[in-house]
Design brief:
The structure is a single chain. 29% of the residues lie in helices and 20% in strands. The protein is of the alpha+beta class and 329 residues long. The protein is elongated and about 75 Å long. About 2% of the residues have low confidence.
Length: 329
């Protein structure tokens, strides 16, 4: 067995007679990051100490893994633990898999604040923002969560009208639908099945984010920091020359839909309009291909953003490149 230095995926711990207390920090950290291995019986400076009683330590390991007062979830089975001989010493190798999104966070002592993250060769406590993100992501479909106290009056009428026009280009059914019927059809309004004595539909988080008035969006729980920003720095040294953001002239109700439409139009307008010659000397306009690429990149940025995070979404255009600054889900 070749010993590599401690790193993102490997940790060494002396464990001569018992399981070290700081094993659990590494267990949480590996599980919450990308998985890794802990080798018991080797010091962090790669000195081979071995373990005196492997059976006792393994028993202690599994007893605590199945004790919810110690750790909230056990990710390890017998197949993840192996006993190895190294330089006439017994070494225990524990492979810790990464937890699934729905299983995270893995935390200690019944305290979510005891959630650890692996960073390079060290374990550190998750920040409050990282912990919040894991808790949010563990939910199956946060965008479909229902909102109480919000209704269609919290949505921007212009956004609804323009979206319906787009839908009718491919589906005539939407021509005769009311805005409410359209919202139900696309899942922006959903029935609250916790209410059994009558039929009640409620706006979803996704519906509010996509079509909502800016002030309504930021008044929803968890969305106080919602902010979308586009800056055009093309041919400027310092200050931006164009911006799309709440409070800027012409953008009283920034939501995901009208931000996408406005920014895509502005990005497309920045494309160089020169032509290229193909191999057969036929002039080929490459603008359409660039437009498609910009559209996909912008859509993906907005789709994969964590709108419950404290950071805002920023799209920045420069002379030769475009930067998307987002905090992913």
């Amino acid at each position: 067995m070749d010993l590599k230095p401690e790193g993102k995926y490997i940790e060494y711990k002396a464990a001569k007679n018992s399981l070290p207390k700081d094993f659990w920090e590494s267990y949480s950290a590996f599980a919450n990051t990308e998985g890794g291995k802990v080798l018991l019986g080797i010091t962090d400076d790669l000195e081979i100490k071995g373990v005196n009683n492997p059976q006792k330590i393994q028993s202690e390991l599994f007893t605590n893994l199945n004790n919810t007062q110690k750790v909230n979830r056990n990710l390890i089975s017998d197949q993840n633990v192996s006993l190895k001989d190294f330089q006439d010493k017994k070494i225990i190798e524990v492979t810790i898999p990464e937890a699934t999104i729905s299983q995270k966070p893995i935390y200690l002592n019944q305290n979510p604040k005891q959630t650890w993250i692996r960073e390079f060769e060290t374990d550190r406590k998750a920040t409050e923002e990282e912990l919040k993100a894991m808790l949010r992501n563990s939910q199956d479909d946060l965008d479909s969560d229902l909102l109480s106290g919000f209704d269609i009056s919290d949505l921007d009428e212009t956004s609804l009208s323009e979206y319906k026009i787009l839908l009718t280009q491919n589906d005539d059914r939407f021509l005769t639908m009311t805005d409410f019927e359209m919202l139900v059809e696309i899942g922006a309004y959903k029935r609250d099945r916790q209410i059994t004595d009558k039929i009640v539909y409620k706006l979803t988080y996704g519906g509010l984010l996509f079509f909502g008035k800016y002030n309504s969006i930021t008044s929803a729980q968890g969305l106080q920091n919602f902010h979308l920003d586009y800056f055009n720095y093309i041919n400027t040294k310092d200050r931006w020359r164009d911006r799309v953001a709440p409070g800027e002239p012409g953008y009283p109700n920034i939501n995901i839909f009208n931000f996408y439409r406005a920014v895509l139009s502005k990005l497309t307008a920045t494309i160089d309009t020169v032509f290229e010659l193909s191999n057969d000397l036929i002039r080929t306009n490459y603008i359409r291909d660039v437009e498609i690429s910009l559209r996909e990149a912008l859509a993906n940025s907005l789709i994969h953003t964590d709108y419950f995070a404290e950071e805002s979404v920023k799209i920045e255009a420069y002379n030769t490149y475009i930067v998307s600054l987002i905090l992913e889900k």
